[in-house]
Amino acid sequence: MASRAEKIDRFPNKILINVSEIQNLKSPRAEPLNVFLRFEYNDGQFSESGKFDVTDGSPRPVDHVAVLAVNASDPVQIDDLGQKPVLVTLFEAVPKDKKQKEDKSTPIGQAVIDLWPLLKNETQASIASPIHAIPGSYLEAQGEQNQPSLSFTVSTEQPLVPVRDQANTNAVRITLEGLYSPPEAWLAGGASFVYTATLPIPINDDKETTVVFTNGTLRAAADATNKQKRWPDAQSFDDEQGELRSKDDREFRTNSEKTKPQVVWNLERRCFLLPFGSASLQHQLTRVPFIAVEVVRTATPTAPKGKKDDDTGISYHGVVYIETAPLLYPGATRLRGAYKIVPYNETEYKAKTKRAGNVIDEAMKIANQLFDRSSLTATKKDTKLTVDKQATAAATSVPKKKTEAGEDASSVTTEAQQYVEHSSYVTIDIVLDRPIIEKRKLSDLYRKVSDLIPPRPPYPLKTNSAGKAVDDYHQQIKNVCNLILDEYRKVCIDDITVEGTLPNDQKRRKLLYELNSTGKYFAFKEQLKHSVIKITFISQLYVFLLDEMHRSLNKSLNIEEPEPVPPSRNTDPQLRMFALEAESNGDYLLAAHYYKQRLAQSSDKLRPWLDYAAFHLLVNDLIKAEECLKECIAIEQTNSTVLILYAVLNAVLENNEVADLFFETATTQDSENVIAWSLYAIFQKHIGDEKNAQITLAKAEKLQRAILKHEEEQTASANIQLTSPISDEKREEEEKDRLGAEEKEEITKSSDSQLNVASKSRLSRSSRSSKQKIVEKSKSTVNEPITTRKSQDISSVMEIEKVTTKKSIYLKSAEFLLKYNLAAWAEKALAYEFLANSGKDQQVEITLAKARILQQDFSAAESHITQALSIDYENVEAWALWGHVKYLQLDFEAAKGRYQRTLVFSEKPPDLHTVYIRLGAILLSEVKESSYSEAKEIFLRACRYQPTCTTYLGLGVACYRMNQYDDAEEALTEANFLNNQSAEVWGYLTLICLQTKRYIEAEQSYKYAIKLDLPAGPLLDEIKTVQHQVGFGNPSF
User: Fold this and answer.
1) What is the pLDDT of residues 75-131, one digit of tens each?
2) Distance (Å, rounded) from C-alpha 989 to C-alpha 987?
3) Which pLDDT tens digit goes with each residue over 405-442?
């Protein structure tokens, strides 16, 4: 009894397999077919049903319950449940004679029950399993359409894995597809050899299971039985982490898998890990950088059942080292790819796996058992049954121990060296149910961000109802009463010290005297006043008074429709343009003034704060830039641009933990943002996390390839449209429409309201005529190519291909950073660009030049610009940048030539406004009549492109120098309208008033110029000279 109880304790968990019925099983003869079911698990029989008859294939109830006893706390048995099914064999019962010693029952079919669902939080599962015909039985004649089947219900009373442990379990699926490009010497062996692969998987702290893939066979590439398990997605190479991923490797793999012989396994091994096994796997992957998969060739066993060969002839001992770093990336659950096979070397093996020895001996014991079973079954019994058993008994758990390979592991054999010579490789796929390192949820990341930067609360809503006003009045009365009582108590206390008690009337008068003499009476009165006013304005009395007032006004006045309120003089886009213009002119105080105006107008909007942060990054005030970005995050936590910038800024400030948090939040919130992934990879390299950086970079490159593919498809469709024949009339109409659209776009690019005001009310006739001349001139110059458009149809296709250049992830990241004045990290991104894509690229050189200009390294910037022009001499952006460099170096003559060349090109630079302003300023400084005329044209074009105070000021100065005082006054008035705080504008208005003999206006303009701190210089000297000449305009005269 004790042994029985001990046996029950060893297997406390019971799995009930209830066979309800069998369908579609017909008797091959006229009489009924007598059959029974035998249940086997892990090479042992544990149940057998009673015999029953079947006839015509109709559903036949069976009602047999098989009980499988297991110990769910044993990690070895749990692992067996995950990868070994229950085999249900259908036997035809043959009557047994008394003289007959053995049962002559014949197996005719077999079904499989997968117990995996019981490990996945389920206590009951219904299964309909087909009965596969055993070769040689009559079931083969029925065909797949009439295939019989069994209906099962598998259940347990309690979950095999306790509910408290289910969240900490894990499962590993390992699929070994095949070995490709094998050594040529294998071809001569044919079917006389089998191929085995093995690797260890830990299941707890002191045990591991040896995963064995055996029965690999060498087959031709065209063999239809290969049936390779291809990855489900089309772009398999993009998602792989193996060693063979380059373009040349892809071509080699395609050729090897389609034309060369290969060893085929196509097996999947599942390992279920309890909580301590999952923790052990995590410890193993974090401690050991590689998983070693050993590959060997052995002779086909020929020993009979129950015996083993003395020498299996192990040869070609190779190893595949799979790097485990990709599985340690947060959220990663899959590792797949093609890995090279190298000869086994004991020293290298120990160094990479940190194991005392290999597992090939233990693996061969398991493989030999399978060989014995398969060889005998293949000759005496059916093949189908054997294959199923081989697939179910592929691994056995053993304690960790030091093994000896039985060979000189320190030397590399000549035969194993052939793996390297033929570039042999295997394809393997490892999938985890749960990641080793959990990826933080977006909600958790947002909560951490909120802890660092609390979101801005909404503005409180003030509820001023009549009831609330009365309640406030009552509360104030209570407060005042308490204060008066305190004063009265003081009077009473003072009265106690005096002989005799004062009458109450005298106490009242004394209290009033104290309140009036100390001023407390008026203080109490003021305290009540606010609540009284609220009652007056909110109560019914106020409503009544307002109604009566409106009735009186309606009787005495005629109410007309009021004029619409004019829009704000300076809108947010205009102020942003003014600030950027001040930045380009180096007037950072004025730029800060405009940014503050934007914040005053819309402090609850994200864009003004973001631009203000970029301004502080320009002037290298990192602390204020950080505060501005905090405001941006407080306004909108989900904006990926702000999250990326704040992460980069913290990386610059060496706050690596905060930077990592915001990079992770940005990539999680916007998982398709190439720039976010690219900069995250650069940051990980910056802090020395090379392994995660490679995986992050691979994700960025995958997204980039998808974007480029989409762009190529769009370009191809555009090319198809361009190559289609178009009539001459239609082409001319399209050209006219295009010119009109371009003219309209140029005139109203970013401030339509501004230009409308300028064109309707403040431009003089001469200015308008000058503008019309320029427009007519531009139309005439652009209309010339219309007649020769037929010869340019082919070149237009080339232009589109030229415009849609393929920018790398590093170049995109650098351009993004330069947009917000983070030059140091932009240079870092471009350094990786040079490492990844060696060779000349004009866009990279231009981006480097921009970074150098921000760092005020003008000689290096000029070097990059000349390098870009050596690649493409007509690059308009390079010419504009070269002009900026010369302008900042105060070489105005050289800058003038480069700006003029920039404007000659049909394509315009991105910073055309800056080119106009600086070229116009250079022309005005030359003090020549011809230069003034050219400056006037440049500033007119600038006013049409983007009207600002500076453009109209330049236009006004040019007209003034040409003695066109009316036009100059109109332009300067427009400049004053856009910015009435410009001392220079008031100074030139002073000169115009002096020249036109307007005494009062001249003096007023001069006062404003002095009040706004017109600096001492040529303009102020000129004003004073003219004042002395005309004898007025200065209040001191």
Assistant:
1) 888 888 888 889 999 998 877 665 555 667 888 899 999 888 888 878 888 888 899
2) 5
3) 444 444 446 788 888 988 899 999 999 988 888 888 88
Structure tokens at 389: 């058993």
> What are the two backbone dihedrals, phi and then psi, of residue 863, each rounded to the nearest 5 degrees?
-65, -45
Mean per-residue pLDDT of the chain: 78
Beta bridge partners of 989: none
Minimal CA–CA distance to 269: which of 178, 171, 342, 183? Answer: 171
Question: Could you identify the residue written with the tokens 């442990």?
Answer: 165
* CA dihedral sign of residues 833, 837, 838, 839: negative
| Domains contained in the chain, CATH given | 14-156 (2.60.40.150), 170-302+313-371+414-432 (2.60.40.150), 466-557 (no CATH)
Report pLDDT digits (tens) over 708-759: 888 888 777 776 665 555 444 444 455 445 434 444 344 333 333 332 323 2
- Tell me the CA distances in angstroms from 432 to 173, 278, 453, one per residue in order: 6, 10, 36
Q: Say yes or no to pLDDT of 654 above 80.
A: yes
- Tokens read off for 12: 């406390």
CA distance 679 to 687: 12
The tens digit of pLDDT for each residue in 349-365 reads: 888 888 888 888 887 87
Comparing CA positions, the residue from 224, 225, 197 lying closest to residue 211 is 197
Give first-to-last CA distance, the chain, whole Å.
Answer: 129
pLDDT the model gives residue 380: 38
Residues 197, 366 contacting (CB under 8 angstroms):
no
Contact 262, 182 (CB under 8 A): yes
User: Per-residue DSSP letters for 369-388?
Assistant: HHHHHHHHHHHHS-HHHHHH
Is residue 428 within 8 A of residue 293, CB to CB? The reply is yes
Rg from Cα positions in the chain: 44
Token pair belonging to 263: 């060893």
DSSP assignment of 1024-1035, as one string?
HHHHHHHT-S-T
Distance CA 216, CA 385 (A): 18
DSSP per-residue letters across 589-621:
HHHHHHHHHHHHH-TT-HHHHHHHHHHHHHTT-
336 versus 229: which is more confidently predicted?
Answer: 336
Which residue do the tokens 């007032």 mark? 549
3-class state of residue 127 by DSSP:
strand
| Token pair belonging to 709 | 């593919």
Q: Which residues are CB-contacts of 54 (< 8 A; sequence separation ≥ 6)?
A: 22, 25, 26, 27, 32, 33, 35, 60
- What is each CA distance from 328 to 284, 461, 700, in whole angstroms? 11, 49, 18
Query: How many whole angstroms separate alpha carbon 996 and alpha carbon 302?
Result: 119
Query: What DSSP string describes 204-251?
Result: SSSEEEEEEEEEEEEE-TT-TT------SSS-HHHH--SS--SHHHHH
Instruction: Examine the pLDDT at 891 and tell me if it is beyond 70.
Output: yes
Between the alpha carbon of residue 521 and those of residues 321, 488, 518, 1000, the distances in Å are 91, 13, 8, 56
Residue 291 is inside which H or E element, if any?
strand 290-299
Structure tokens at 553: 């006004």
DSSP result, 852-899: HHHTT-HHHHHHHHHHHHHH-TT-HHHHHHHHHHHHHTT-HHHHHHHH
Segment 44-60 mean pLDDT? 87
Query: Residue type at 977?
Result: F
DSSP result, 977-1021: HH-TT-HHHHHHHHHHHHHTT-HHHHHHHHHHHHHTTPPSSHHHH
**What's the full length of the chain, in residues?**
1037
User: SS3 for 135?
Assistant: coil
Q: Where are the alpha helices (DSSP H) in 927-964?
A: 929-945, 949-961
